[in-house]
Design a protein that fits this description.
alpha/beta; eight-stranded parallel barrel; globular; 388 residues; 10 strands
């Protein structure tokens, strides 16, 4: 008959060897430190585009699909991009909201391509400084729609022009812009989206041709984290001489004293068809305008203006808004920026352009039809006046 199994027990001798009191084993008090505590969620890593590398992009078209804009940026050798979220010259340029599936597909593809930052430019018709109540109300609503679409697409920055003040005083216009933005942001959680106020060339009664005006607006929106987007062609047309080395340094000094370089997240990099101080907004191909190629090399390589972790602003981006008049103009301007920067950009799809020969013919025909319609309307109006 097998012997019964014995269950080992802890003896007093065992406890003494472990230097423990048997009473403590049976009646050890609860220590809150022994409670299980889940590991805290790790802090999210900064996006890849904030690694201190040079970021160069161009405004790409969303025609056909938001995804097309991403593919165009990739094919053109960009590592960042700017888009419109809807038609920029129509109040009803499309749905106020983007379908969830489309927005999700866009965000996923952008992450795959490693493109960033993503900048969205607001509708040109928006006038946050408008004196007319109806125009201002419409502008606030349109800007709110821009915010909602930007958040859906996962944009990092939303650029908007300050607007035109009409007969209003500059101080009044700036206060109106600040209030308009705050009204648009109500009930819209911005998350990581940052609003950027863009400088202007100074045409008509436009606000923002002076750096002091941009600084005043972003100070008034400091609670929202608003900052600035500076356009080289606009600065030049407004009288800031970027074309010479000394002029660039003087402009940088003025930016530091007003807006603050730490608040300039986006540079719109455009040459100017207009002479210094001409106060007209006309963009030109890089190196073909009044600012000249050497000036852009100085801008792109300036330690304070780039995205260097040591001296610049990580994530700062240089974006082209140059004209595309012939197939390949877009590709050539991107390549020119990389060349002037002294760095090698991403791979380019040879011969790719957002403007194809077929599309150019179509656009040319459309312009001719539009011009003819305008002329015909003018003739009819003239005949009616003569009869009257």
């Amino acid at each position: 008959m097998p012997e019964p199994k014995t269950i080992p027990t802890t003896t007093t001798t065992d406890v003494e060897e472990l230097k423990l009191d048997p009473l403590d084993i049976r009646h050890e008090p609860f220590d809150p430190e022994d409670e299980y505590r889940p590991e805290p969620e790790p802090e999210p890593l900064p996006p890849v585009w904030m690694d201190g590398s040079l970021r160069i992009g161009i405004h790409t078209s969303i025609s056909g699909s938001y995804l097309n804009a991403l593919e165009s940026a990739r094919k053109l050798g960009c590592n960042a991009l700017q888009i419109f979220s809807a038609s920029p010259r129509m109040w009803a340029g499309g749905p106020a909201r983007i379908p969830d599936a489309d927005a999700a597909a866009f965000r996923a593809r952008r992450e795959e391509l490693g493109l960033g930052p993503l900048v969205i430019h607001a509708n040109y018709l928006i006038n946050l400084a408008a004196v007319q109540s109806m125009l201002r109300t419409r502008s606030i609503q349109a800007f709110q729609d821009e915010l909602v679409r930007s958040i859906a697409l996962g944009a990092d920055f939303l650029v908007v022009h300050p607007g035109a003040r009409g007969e209003a005083k500059m101080e009044t216009a700036i206060a109106t812009i600040i209030d308009s933005v705050k009204q648009a942001v109500r009930r819209v959680p911005l998350g990581n989206l940052r609003i950027l106020i863009e400088n202007t060339a100074g045409m008509g009664s436009a606000v923002g041709s002076r750096l002091e005006e941009i600084a005043a607006v972003i100070r008034g929106l400091s609670s929202l984290g608003a900052a600035a987007c500076l356009d080289t062609a606009h600065l030049f047309a407004a009288g800031y001489d970027l074309s010479s080395a000394s002029g660039l340094e003087a402009t940088i000094s003025q930016i530091e004293q007003t807006v603050g370089l730490e608040n300039v997240y986006v540079w719109h990099v455009n040459d100017s068809k207009i002479a210094l101080g001409g106060r007209v907004d006309r963009h030109e191909h890089i190196g073909h305008g009044k600012i000249k190629a050497d000036a852009f090399a100085r801008i792109l390589r300036h330690p304070k203006l780039g995205a260097s972790l040591a001296t610049g602003l990580p994530g700062r981006v240089f974006l082209l808004e140059t004209p595309i008049e012939e197939p390949g103009d877009d590709r050539k301007n991107v390549a020119k920026l990389w060349e002037l920067s002294g760095e090698e950009g991403p791979a380019v799809e040879k011969s790719y352009s957002m403007l194809t020969s077929a599309l150019k013919k179509k656009l040319t025909a459309h312009r001719k039809e539009t011009a003819k319609a305008v002329r015909d309307a003018a003739r009819k109006s003239s005949k009616k006046k003569k009869k009257g």
